[in-house]
Amino acid sequence: MKQVRIFIALYTSVIFATQVPAQEVSTLTPVPFQASGGLAVGPDDNIYVADFGVLLNNANGTRVYKVTPEGDVTVFATGFNGASGNTFDDQGNLYQSNIRGSTISKVAPNGTVTTFANAGSGVNGPVGLAFDSAGNLFVANCGNSTILKFNPAGQGSQFAAGGLLSCPNGATMDDQDNLYVANFNNGSVIKLTPQGNMSLFATTPGSTTKAAGGNGHITFANDRLYVVSNATQQVFEIDLDTAALTLIAGTGVKGRADGPLLQASFSLPNGISASRDGTRLYINDSENITGNNNISPNVVRVVQLPNIVAPIDMNAGLNDAWFSPATDGQGFFITVFADTGVVTLAWFTYDTVLPDQGAGANLGDPGHRWLTALGTIDGNRSVMDISITSGGVFDTSTDIERVDDGTITLTFDDCSGGTVDYDIPSIDRQGSVPIERVAGDNTALCEELVGE
């Protein structure tokens, strides 16, 4: 009997495990510059650092700097008024708070600056900024302890006020659109749900040496939160499930020492953002290690995170047959076109017996033959639209009908294994399939390309 195969083609991106670098704090920019405000990593992997000002009580900084991952510093844009917190939208535009000017600036990728919102929209001493998945911008107003929400059309409204908020400083969003803000006046980290419900989520330790001030900024990465304590000169991790606080770096004594995470020291750390691969935190702190009002000039420090493996772009070494040991009557064939950024995958089943004549060709039935999808590489994960095809006959010219239905995501843990996740609404079928290679012929190539 002729072997019957059902194919699914799709695109993917892949995460490969690599050796974790030494877990240390290092200085990326040894020459200090005026950059005491917020810090955000852009879609180009560069670090954008704002100049709040030289003194905490005189926010007069006017610039935003671009710092490359190699430590080269240039001026990205000017014309700000107390540049504090910042973030990027999905179009690569930087949004910059101006705490002294009570405005939000929008900076195009070419450095052109325009005003997005001002005091007339409720902006009052803004610091932290964060976008949700729908493109709404949330603004943490330190000036009056409120949170504003601007929809994609630029219309603003008050989202939260008072209560637990006390000069909300940093702001970040998790992947469920929960907003987290870090208070500057105390160590509180506040959680706000998409519905606006507010609760105390975690508290960083206090300090006897810095009476005023608690937290700097906060960021979300690796399914957890990272926050800098301006009071204790330390960096903390917060578990999203338990809200448990874990010290990541810093002795708690003000200083400028690089080295192992818990032996390194910081001086008034403020901005924080994760590298796009999630392996590093970038933090700006002060060159000054005496007093609390003189917060500039600054350097950018790098915290190499423990137990975080860098995702690596897929390569041709993934071109192979894959299967799930739990369902070995089916398999996957992956083809990676790294030069064009396109990936396809065939999901096929093996059967030497033709289905009954009465079996339907509906999706998921024994008589079904084809389901295809195709797309481009996008970071460490790829979500694609499935195309259901019908009317095809091998080596015969026929009209093929395609209907889009559902999504499939493929993620690789390393060169030897990954996971296929699928959701097909028309047949109410969802699932997750762990996969491994049928043969290891291309494993060496994959590992070689990862190392390049």
Task: Walk me through this protein's architecture.
- With 452 residues, this protein is mainly β.
- 2% of the residues lie in helices and 43% in strands.
- It has 1 helix and 35 strands.
- The protein has one helix at 443-450, and strands at 7-9, 24-27, 39-41, 47-50, 63-67, 73-78, 83-88, 94-98, 103-107, 113-117, 126-131, 137-141, 146-150, 156-161, 168-173, 179-183, 188-192, 198-203, 215-221, 224-229, 234-239, 245-249, 259-260, 272-274, 280-286, 298-304, 320-323, 330-337, 342-349, 370-372, 375-376, 382-390, 401-412, 417-424, 429-437.
- It has a 10-stranded mixed beta sheet, with no helix packed on it. Strands 23-2-26-25-24 form a 5-stranded antiparallel beta sheet, with no helix packed on it.
- The radius of gyration is 25 Å and the shape is elongated.
- The two termini are 46 Å apart.
- The model is unreliable at 1-20 (pLDDT under 50).
Query: What's the CATH architecture of the largest domain?
Result: 6 Propeller
Q: What is the overall pLDDT average?
A: 87
In quaternary terms, these chains amount to single chain
CATH level 1 class label of the largest domain: Mainly Beta
Strand content: 35-45%
